[in-house]
């Protein structure tokens, strides 16, 4: 399945007194990767919400391998695990600039109708965009 990669520098506010990235910030990094993966596919969270769809995270798993530090250039590689149905699942690898693995992670999100708060199937237009992306 297709993947996307983003890079950015660790900000001081994301670290503890030792200059190490606080573990809770990795969930935000994953969200950044996921949002950009969707955007590169041709859809945004905002557009999904305008169409009455939410994507809450129902599962988050992180496996820490190595610390990231203040001012490190890190990359988040986001990969769609399989074709979405009611759920959409992503795998992630976060690297430092030496391509050392810092974190391996996984998230599962569910497509939810904003009106009735019930799970729904992945919209066809999103499936079509994903299929077209994989052909590139």
Number of strands: 7
Low-confidence stretches: none
> Outline, from the CA principal axes?
elongated
What topology, given as strand order, has the largest sheet? 1-4-5-6-3
- Helices and strands, in order, run as EHHEEEEEEH
CATH superfamily: Hotdog Thioesterase
Could you say how many structural domains there are in total? 1
CATH architecture: Roll
Q: What is the structural class?
A: alpha+beta
Query: Mean pLDDT score, rounded?
Result: 94
Helix content: 25-40%
Give the CATH topology: Thiol Ester Dehydrase, Chain A
Question: Largest beta sheet, briefly?
Answer: 5 strands, antiparallel
Distance between the termini: 11 Å
Quickly count the helices: 3
**Strand share of the residues?**
25-35%
Question: Radius of gyration from the CA trace?
Answer: 16 Å
Question: What do these coordinates show?
Answer:
One of its GO terms (molecular function) is fatty acyl-CoA hydrolase activity. Keywords: Hydrolase. This is Acyl-CoA thioesterase. It comes from Zobellia amurskyensis. Pfam families: 4HBT_2. By secondary structure, the chain is an alpha+beta fold. It has a single domain, classed as Thiol Ester Dehydrase, Chain A (Roll). Helices cover 26% and strands 34% of the residues. The chain is built from 3 helices and 7 strands, in the order E-H-H-E-E-E-E-E-E-H. A hairpin with a 5-residue loop joins strand 5 and strand 6. The longest helix is centred in the first third of the chain and has 17 residues.
Summarize, please.
GO terms for molecular function: fatty acyl-CoA hydrolase activity. 26% of the residues lie in helices and 34% in strands.
């Amino acid at each position: 399945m297709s993947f996307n990669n983003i890079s950015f520098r660790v900000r001081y506010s994301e670290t503890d007194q030792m200059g190490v990235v606080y573990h809770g910030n990795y969930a935000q990094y994953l969200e950044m990767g996921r949002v950009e993966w969707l955007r590169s596919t041709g859809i945004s969270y905002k557009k999904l919400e305008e169409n009455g769809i939410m994507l809450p995270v129902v599962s988050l798993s992180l496996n820490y391998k190595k610390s990231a530090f203040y001012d490190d250039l890190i990359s988040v590689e986001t990969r769609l695990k399989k074709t979405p149905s009611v759920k959409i699942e992503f795998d992630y690898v976060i690297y430092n600039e030496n391509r050392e693995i810092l974190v391996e992670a996984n998230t599962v999100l569910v497509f939810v109708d904003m009106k009735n708060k019930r799970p729904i199937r992945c919209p066809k237009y999103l499936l079509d965009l994903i299929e077209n992306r994989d052909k590139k």
